[in-house]
Amino acid sequence: MKFGVIVFPGSNCDDDMVHVLQNVMGCETVKLWHKDTHLAGLGKGDCIVLPGGFSYGDYLRAGAIARFSPIMQAVSEFAQDGGFVFGVCNGFQILCEAGLLPGVLLRNANQQFICKNVHLRPMTLNSPLTNAIPPNQALKIPIAHAEGRYYADEDTLRSLETNDQILFRYCDSDGQITPEANPNGALMNIAGICNRQRNVFGMMPHPERASEPALGNTDGRGLFESLLRSVSALIPA
Amino acid sequence: MQVKSEPEVNLQTASSLGISEEEFQKIADYLGRTPNFTELSVYSVMWSEHCSYKNSIHWLKTLPREGKRLLVGAGEENAGLVDIGEGLACAFKIESHNHPSAIEPYQGAATGVGGIHRDIFTMGARPIASLNSLRFGNIDLDHTKHLMRGVVSGIGDYGNCFGVPTVGGEVYFNDCYNQNILVNAMSVGIVRVGETISATASGVGNPVFIVGSATGKDGIHGATFASADLTEDSAEDLPAVQVGDPFQEKLLLEASLEAIQTGAVVGMQDMGAAGITCSTSEMSAKGQVGMRIDLDKVPTRQAHMQAWEILLSESQERMLIVGEKGREAELQAVFEKWDLVCEQIGEVTEGGMLEYFFHGEKIAEVPADSLVLGGGAPVYTREYTRPKYLEKIQRFKPSSVPAPASFPDAAKKLWSSPNLISRRWVYEQYDSMVRTNTMSTNAPSDAAIVRVKGSAKALALTTDCNSGYVYADSYVGTMIAVAEAARNIVCSGGIPVAITNCLNFGNPYNPEVYWQFVHAIRGMGDACRKFDTPVTGGNVSFYNQSVYQDRTEPIYPTPTIGMVGVLEDSSLHTTLNFKEKGHHIYMLGTPHNDLGSSEYLRHVCQIPFSPVPHFDLDEEFHIQQNLSQIIRKKLIASAHDVSEGGLFATLVESAIASKLGFEVESDQNFRKDAYWFGESQSRVVVSVSPQKEDELVNYLNTHNVPFTRLGEVKGESVVIDDEDFGIVQEWEQVYLESMAKKMEHAI
Predict the structure, then answer these.
(1) Rounded to whole angstroms, how far apart are CA atoms B672 and B683?
(2) Mean pLDDT over residues B234-253, rounded?
(3) By the 8 A CB rule, do B504 and B184 touch?
(4) Which of A136, A203, B485, B589 has minimal CB crowding within 10 Å?
(5) Which region among A42-56, A60-74, A75-89, A157-171 has the lowest average model confidence (pLDDT)?
(6) Which value does ipTM take for this structure?
C-alpha cells in the first residue's frame, strides 16, 4: 500500500504525516503537489492523505479554496473509484468543502483556536480506519484547530447514524460521551466520519501527533495500523 | 540633491524624524551636503535606536560573545548560530514588538512572531519552535484583558498558520505594564552546518531581488516609532504598525529554503524594520559593496506610492536576495512555483554607495557604511545615576511582615495570584505540537523539550526574567534571570549552551533607567560567563514607559533571557511531576529566612518594595552542575526548580502534574512563611524512589550539595506539618480555571 500526501500551499502537517507513514509505519509515501492533475501512479488499494494546516491561509473559510486545486479533481475521481482518501484537520475541512464528505466544520463554539489533548471514542469496527481498534476505549489524541465544530442538518446526521458513518466522537477519559468532553461544540460530539462507501475518512484530531513513544502518546497508531491491515486484507501481498 | 514634491529639509524636519542637531550635522558631514528628505528619512530609521543600538552597543560589547559552539559572532548575522553536534546547528533569536502591540495588540504581536521567524529562515535554517515572553498590566483591568486577548490570538494565529509550534514562554502581570505591555518573541531553527546563508551582498553585477509580498504603505517609520516614548497620542501612529500574513510567510519560508538549495543565492536578508533601506544598507555594508536599486521596479500594493514610502515601508513577508548573475531564472522558477513575487530591483555595485532611483531619477545616494551599526551610526554612552527608589527597597524590614494568621488561607491567597495560576487559557490557543517534536506536551518539564529528528538529540528551550527582581537589584536580578533559565534547562535534563536576550527598558536618556540597563548588562555578563552561555545576539527595546498626566513611569527593567540547551540524548529528559506514592521528596540547595521580592510579599502582603532574594552565583552553579550529574546517573524521578511562589508553589505544581498528594515538614530554624513562600534562589525539588534514595543521599554528601529531606509523595492532599491544606484536585481547579474565568468577559 502506497500513501500520497498532498501539499497545498499552507499545508503544515504534511511533513508530520509523511514522517509517521514512512518512518514510523514503514510505508512507501510520496508527496503530491496541489498543482498536479495526476496522482503519481497511486491506484486502488493506495491512500491519498490530505494533511492538516492552513491551505490558502484558510482565507474565506477553511478548505474553501483548496477544493478548487487542480489535484482535487483527480482525488475526487480516485475516491469514486474506491481509493482510500483520509483527511485530517484541514484535510477534513477540505473533504467536506469538496463534497466528498457530508457536513461542514464551523468556528469553534468558544471562538478560539484550541490545541490540546482530547479523548475520542471509536464508534464502529466497520471501517478501514477503525477496524483494528478495540471498541469503546477512549483514545487520547490532540486537536489543533479554530474551525472544528462539526455541523450538518438533521437528515444528514440521521443518515450518518443509520449508515454507521460516525467514526469518532469526543468523550472523556473514561469513554463517556458528555457535553463537557466536547471541545468545540461539534454536533453529537462528532470528531470524525466516513462516507457511505467507507473509503473516504475525515477527522479533526491529529493521529499523526500521537503515534510515537518519543512524544509520550501512541494512541493514534491504531488508526494507521487499521488502515494497513484492511488494505493488506483487500490486496494480498 | 533636491527631489521635487519632497518636503524641504532643515533642523526642524530632522527633529520631527527623531534626529538630533548633532546627528543632523554628522549626516551632512558624511554626504558633504544637506540630505534631501528621502535621505534624511533613511538616516532617521537606520540611526533609530531600534536599528543602530546607538545607546546600548557600548555596553552590549562587554557581554561574553564567544564560545567554542558559536558558529557566527554575536550580531554578525540575523540570528545567533550554535553548533549542537552531529553536523547540526541551531539558529535562534528573541525580539521585541512592544510598541506596536500596545497600539494594535493583534497585528503587533502577529508581526512580531513573523519577523523573528524570518530572521531564522533567512539564514537557511528551518524554524522548529517558538517561544515568547509577555508582560501585561493589572489583569483585572478591561484594557489589559483587551490587550491580552489580542496579543494571544495574534501570536496564535500567526504561528499556528505558519506551522511552527509555540512550545514555551512566560506571562507575567504587573501594574508597571498597564500602558506599555511587552511582547517578546523567540524563534529556534535547525540547519546543517555549512548550509547557512549570510546576509552579505557580494559580486559586483550580481542581481538584487525582492521576493515575497508586494510593498504597501504599512509600517512606515515603524523603527522610529519603536524608538520613542509611548504617549497618549501614540494611537495616531497606527499606520506605523504592520499587518501580517502568515500564509505568505509560510510560502516564503518554503520558497526561500528551496531557493537556497539551488545554490544560486549569494546572500539573503529579511525585511523587518526599515524595509528595503535596512536590508540594502546592511547587506552592502557587510560585503563592502554598493547597490543600485530601482524603486519603481518594486511591486507595490497600491498605486502612486512615493519613492521614500517604498524605501521605508515595513510591509511584512519580504526578503532581499542577492543572486548569482546568470542564474536568475533558477531563482525565479522557485518563487513562481510557490506563487510568490520575485522581482529584480537592482544590482550589486562597486564602491559602497547605495543609489536609489525612481523612474530613472536618482532620488537618494548615501554611503552604505555610514548608515549601519559598526559603521557610521552614532554610538553614545549615557549618564547614569543610582535610582532613588532603591532607598525604599533598602528600608524594608522582614520583621515588619507579620506571620499569617492561617497558613492554609495565606497559601490559597498566594495561589490565586495571576502570576502563579496556570497559563492554560493562553497556551491552548497556540499550536504547541505541530512538527511532532514537542516532547514536553505529555511529559512536562521546566524547559520545553523539542527533539531533533534524525538525531538522538533534543533541544531544551526557555525564556525567563523576573522583572521584580531586576527592579529591586538590576545586577543580581539579571544574574538570576540567566541562572533561572539555566536551571530550567538543567532540571529538564539539558546542558545550557547559549542565550539570546531581549532588553526591555525605559527611556535611556533617563539616568536612573540607564543605571538599570548598565547594571543589568553587568549581571548578565557575569552570569553568562559562569554558565559558559555566550550571548549570541538579541534585541534592545528602550522607551518602554507609561505616561501619566503628572509623571512618567518606566516599566520594571525586563532583560528577558532566551536560552537554548542541548540534551545529548533525548532519553535524559527529566520531568517535573511526581511519579509514585512512596517516593521521597528532597530539596537541593539552602533555605533562607528570605521573603525578598517574593510573590507572597507582593500579592498577599501588598508590599511592593523589598530586596532581591538571596542569590549566590557560585552556589547556583554548584547545584546545577551536580543536578546535571544526578540526572545522568538516573537517580531521581522528577526535578522542578523553586521560583515564583517559593517551595510551596513548586511542590503543588509537581503534585498537580501527577495528581498525587504529598506530606512535608517545615524546618524549625526558619520563619515558616519564608520557608514555604520565600524565593531565595538556587533550589530544586526532586523526588526519588526508595530504592535510589541512599545512592542519592550518598552522592549529595560526597559532593557537598546542601539538601533537605522535605517529605514524601503520599495520599491525595497537600499536607504540611500534619496540617491538611486540602486535596490536590482543589488546588488544580483553581490553578487551571482561574485565568479563563478572569478572561471570560474580555473584549
Answers:
(1) 17
(2) 79
(3) yes
(4) A136
(5) A60-74
(6) 0.96
Q: How many residues does chain A have?
A: 237
- How far from the centroid of its chain's Cα atoms is residue B537's Cα? 11
Helix axes B105-121, B246-262, angle to 10 degrees: 10
Sign for the pseudo-dihedral over CA of A111, A114, A119, A125: positive
pLDDT band, residue B550 (cuts 50/70/90)? confident
CA–CA dist A89, A4 (Å, integer): 17
User: CA-to-CA distance for B512 and B520, rounded, in angstroms?
Assistant: 12
C-alpha cell at B536: 549570541
CB contact under 8 A, B436 and A16: yes
Average pLDDT (A47-75) is: 90
> At which residue does the C-alpha cell 484547530 appear?
A145
Residue with cell 531553527: B189
Whether A147 is catalytic is: no
Strands B88-96 and B182-192: antiparallel
**Cβ-contact B444, B659 below 8 angstroms:** no
B307 residue type, one letter:
A
CA B331 to CA B333: how far, in whole Å? Answer: 5
**Vertex B699 angle, CA B696 and B700, to 5°:** 90
User: Cα distance from B251 to chain A (closest Cα, Å)?
Assistant: 7
Residue pair B78/B119 in contact by the 8 Å Cβ criterion: yes
Spatial separation of the C-alpha atoms in residues B14 and B11, rounded to whole Å = 5
Whose grid coordinates read 545615576? B385
User: A89-109 burial, b if ≥16 CB within 10 A, otherwise e?
Assistant: bbbbbbbbbbebbbbbbbbbe
The residues facing B707 across adjacent strands are B588
Give the whole-angstrom CA distance, residue B590 versus residue B587: 8
Q: Is B463 in contact with B170 (CB distance < 8 Å)?
A: yes
Report DSSP state, residue B12: H
Of the candidates B269, B222, B283, B172, the one whose C-alpha atom is nearest the C-alpha of residue B599 is B172
Size of interface A-B (CB pairs under 8 A): 90
Exposure of A26 in the CB half-sphere (CA atoms within 13 A):
1
Strand ranges of the sheet holding A190-194, from the earlier edge strand across to the other edge: A28-33, A2-7, A47-50, A84-88, A200-203, A190-194, A166-171, A114-122, A139-145
pLDDT digits (tens, 9 = 90+) for B486-530: 999 999 999 999 999 999 999 999 999 999 999 999 999 999 999
User: Residue A1 has what pLDDT?
Assistant: 85
Q: Which residues of A touch B432 (CB under 8 A)?
A: 115
Asked if the C-beta of B126 comes within 8 angstroms of chain A's C-beta atoms, the answer is no
Among chain A residues, CA nearest to B337: A35
Catalytic residue among A47, A97, A171, A208: A208
Active site (annotated) includes residue A171? no
